[in-house]
TrEMBL record:
One of its GO terms (molecular function) is ATP hydrolysis activity. Pfam families: AAA, Response_reg. This is Response regulator. Keywords: Phosphoprotein, Transcription, Transcription regulation, Two-component regulatory system. PROSITE patterns: RESPONSE_REGULATORY (PS50110). Residues 115-229 form the Response regulatory domain. One of its GO terms (biological process) is phosphorelay signal transduction system. The modification 4-aspartylphosphate is found at D164.
C-alpha cells in the first residue's frame, strides 16, 4: 500500500489532507463516504507513529479505491447466450437449459414496469403523485388508507411505497413497520406535512428510505423515487443468484462459469478453495494488526474494477 510506504516520510497533517482529498474525489455511495469520513476523524486523533494509525491509513485507502458504483450492464440476449453455451460446451443440455431459464426470468423481471404504491388519505395529493409517477413510466396504484395498502400487497409485488404519515387507523409509521416486517426489500418513502426532526429520525430508524415534507417539489419526488429504485436494483445485483455445478475435475464447471460471464458481458473471477485453511483468506482479516488483509473476494472485485463480476 502506498500510504504504508509513505507514512514514515510524510507528516501527520499531510497524510490526513491526502486522504481527505481521496475521499472527496472518489465516487462513493453516501453511506460509504460517511464511514470513510468517520475513520478519517479517528486518524486525526491518533499518534502517527502507532500501528493503529498505519492500519487506518491502509483501510481508508482501500475503502475509497473499491469500485462501489461501477458495474457492468447485463446483456440478456437469450439467443446470443444459447449460441455461446453451445459453442463452448458439447452436451450438458440440462445444465445449459437451466442457465437459459435463469436469463429468461431475469429479462422478464427487468423488462417489467416498476410497481409503485401511493398511500394518502388526501385525494388531491394522492392523484397528483399518481400522475407524476405515471408520467415517469411507472405502474402506480393509489389507495386512501394503510389497510387498503396492505390488501394491495396480497395481489401484487411493489418496489417502492410512498405513504403519508398522518392517517386514520393505520398511520404511515405503523404501515412502514408492517411492510418492512413482511417485505424487507420494499423501499418506503414517507411524505407528510407534519415533518419534524424526531419523526424523520424515527422513520429512518424503522427502515424508511427517505422522508419528504409537504409541500414537496415534483423534481424531488422524481429524484428520490428513482434513487430508491436504483438502491433496490443494486441490492438485487449484490445478492446475485448462485449456480451450483457438481462434478469431477474436467467436466466443465469453470468453463461454464466463463460462458455465463461472457454471455452476460460481465467480468469473470476464478477462486480456487483448494488448500485454503482459513476462511479469512476469503472474507478478510479483522483490523487488529498491521498485516491484516482484505479477503480474496474484495481483492478480486477491486482488481477487475466492477462490483458485479461472476465468481
Amino acid at each position: 500500500m502506498k500510504f504504508f510506504k509513505k507514512s514514515n516520510k510524510k507528516n501527520h497533517t499531510t497524510d490526513i489532507e491526502d486522504l481527505r482529498k481521496m475521499i472527496d474525489e472518489a465516487d462513493l455511495p453516501v453511506n460509504i463516504r460517511e464511514i470513510a469520513n468517520q475513520e478519517l476523524e479517528k486518524l486525526t486523533k491518533m499518534n502517527s507513529s502507532t500501528a493503529e494509525y498505519t492500519v487506518g491509513l491502509i483501510y481508508i485507502e482501500y475503502l475509497v479505491t473499491l469500485p462501489w458504483n461501477k458495474q457492468t450492464q447485463d446483456n440478456l440476449d437469450i439467443n446470443r447466450a444459447e449460441r455461446i453455451l453451445n459453442e463452448n460446451h458439447y452436451g450438458l443440455e440440462n445444465v445449459k437449459e437451466r442457465i437459459l431459464e435463469y436469463l429468461a426470468v431475469r429479462k422478464l423481471k427487468l423488462d417489467r414496469k416498476y410497481q409503485i404504491l401511493v398511500v394518502d388519505d388526501d385525494k388531491i395529493a394522492r392523484d397528483n403523485l399518481k400522475h407524476i409517477l405515471e408520467k415517469e413510466g411507472y405502474h402506480v396504484v393509489a389507495v386512501a388508507s394503510g389497510m387498503e395498502a396492505l390488501q394491495q400487497f396480497q395481489n401484487a409485488e411493489f418496489d417502492v411505497v410512498l405513504t403519508d404519515l398522518k392517517m386514520e387507523k393505520i398511520d404511515g409509521m405503523e404501515l412502514l413497520e408492517r411492510i418492512k416486517s413482511r417485505y424487507p426489500d420494499v423501499e418506503v418513502i414517507m411524505i407528510t406535512a407534519y415533518a419534524t426532526i424526531s419523526s424523520a429520525v424515527e422513520a429512518i430508524k424503522k427502515g424508511a428510505y427517505n422522508y419528504i415534507a409537504k409541500p414537496f417539489q415534483i423534481k424531488d419526488v422524481r429524484s428520490i423515487v428513482r434513487e430508491a429504485l436504483e438502491k433496490r436494483l443494486l441490492q438485487q445485483e449484490i445478492r446475485g443468484p448462485i449456480f451450483c455445478f457438481v462434478g469431477p475435475p474436467g467436466t466443465g464447471k469453470t468453463s461454464l462459469g466463463k460462458s455465463i460471464a461472457q454471455a452476460l458481458e460481465r467480468k469473470f473471477v476464478r477462486i480456487s478453495l483448494a488448500g485454503m485453511k482459513d476462511e479469512a483468506e476469503i472474507r478478510g482479516h479483522p483490523r487488529t494488526y498491521v498485516a491484516a488483509m482484505p479477503g480474496r473476494i474484495i481483492r478480486e472485485i477491486r482488481r477487475v474494477g466492477s462490483i458485479n463480476p461472476v465468481f
